[in-house]
Design a protein that fits this description.
The structure holds two protein chains of two kinds. By secondary structure, chain A is mainly alpha-helical. Chain A is built from four helices and no strands. Chain A is rod-shaped, with a radius of gyration of 19 Å. In chain B, α2 crosses α3 and α4 runs antiparallel to α6. The longest helix of chain B has about 40 residues. Classes of the chains: A mainly alpha, B mainly alpha. Chains A and B meet through α4 of A and α2, α6 and α7 of B.
């Protein structure tokens, strides 16, 4: 393995790591989402069950942003 | 350490042919209908779904266990999703949503439950929903059938979806490209979500599996290295926990896929009803 190829490989790994940092935002978002849901559910337990579908929908939409970062990271790692 | 075989976490997603069928041509397009591990898993999944409902579909008022499970699954779509979100006009779409839900649920669960790994040099389990081709097919099929249904039901008025109300004419025209972009990115996100979740889960499980083996091999060399059995056992405990998490994710992603399809349908079915 010559130096240029080794450099390319190194930068690829660094880039994949940086790309995966996008998942931080999704993690924060999911924490906010479930935290606020729990807070509301404890205040009003009677209304909690009816909003569960919306909770999972919000979870899915938030999670997608993190998954984009994850997929980009995987493309950098294995795609090229 | 250096001469250990590298364990590739992506190896489990490779497609290989099981039954080789000759390639034929439709017009100029070559068609290869060989049975690979992905197709085989899908066929098994289809057989399982049909068998399950053939065995459990009864009309007893007091259901037995199988019928109760089947009715609970149906209620997830009918009572939890379609009822509150779509309302009474949504009843004709229950079969499609239920089929979608059952297919994704079965394929997701099969990839976790039947995780027997490699037997006789060949991987016998396959996570079909961790292939982007499969999830993209489901997503595009869902999205465009909903989109076309909108035009069939409402005609050109359906384009009003892209022009938000209450912004004036100029504001609405300015907003239209953004609305269009956020509308047409939906199949991408729909496909990506299922694909990313299943792929990520399986990669992590495979990585921890490789830790178990690699650390145990280190531990076998005796002496101080015997301590390596501890992280090996911890990794194994992690796999057990992750399998439980994957079961939850498998059910949740099937539910989420169906839920988002319902939400997209809602814009068509209740179009112009002040959604």
């Amino acid at each position: 393995m010559n130096a240029a190829v080794a450099d390319f490989h190194t930068y690829k790994l660094i880039g994949a790591g940086l790309a995966a940092m996008g998942m931080i935002g999704a993690g924060v978002g999911l924490g906010v989402l479930f935290g606020n849901y729990l807070q509301a559910a404890i205040r009003n337990p009677a209304g909690a069950a009816s909003q569960q579908t919306m909770l999972f929908l919000g979870m899915a939409l938030t999670e997608t942003m993190g998954l984009f970062a994850f997929v980009v990271s995987l493309i950098i790692l294995f795609g090229s | 350490m250096a001469n250990q075989p590298a364990i590739d976490p992506m190896e489990q997603f490779q497609i290989h042919k099981i039954v080789d069928l000759p390639t034929f041509h439709i017009g100029k397009i070559p068609v290869d209908m060989s049975i690979n591990n992905s197709v085989l898993t899908m066929i098994v999944g289809a057989v399982l779904i049909v068998l399950f409902f053939a065995l459990t579909a009864r009309r007893e008022i007091v259901p037995n266990r199988g019928q109760a499970v089947a009715e609970a699954l149906y209620n997830i779509i009918d009572r939890v999703l379609v009822g509150p979100i779509l309302g009474p006009h949504g009843r004709p779409y229950v079969p499609y949503l239920f089929t979608l839900f059952m297919v994704i649920l079965t394929l997701n669960l099969m990839s976790v439950v039947f995780a027997v790994g490699n037997i006789a040099g060949q991987s016998w389990t396959f996570a079909v929903t961790s292939q982007l081709a499969v999830t993209a097919t489901l997503a595009v099929l869902t999205f465009f059938s909903v989109f076309i249904l909108g035009f069939i039901k409402h005609g050109p008025k359906f384009l009003g979806l892209f022009f938000p109300s209450g912004m004036g004419v100029i504001g609405a025209i300015l907003m239209a490209p953004i609305e269009m972009l956020s509308y047409f990115v939906r199949p991408v996100t729909l496909a990506m979500r299922l694909f990313g979740n299943m792929l990520g889960g399986h990669v992590v499980m495979s990585l921890f599996g490789s830790f178990v083996v690699a650390l145990a091999i280190v531990g076998l060399s005796g002496g101080m290295a015997t301590l390596a059995f501890i992280p090996s056992a911890l990794s194994f405990a992690m796999i057990v926990a992750l399998t439980g998490l994957e079961l939850v994710v498998a059910v949740l992603q099937a539910f989420v896929f169906a839920a988002l399809a319902t939400v997209y349908l809602n814009e068509v079915v209740n179009f112009g009803h002040g959604h």
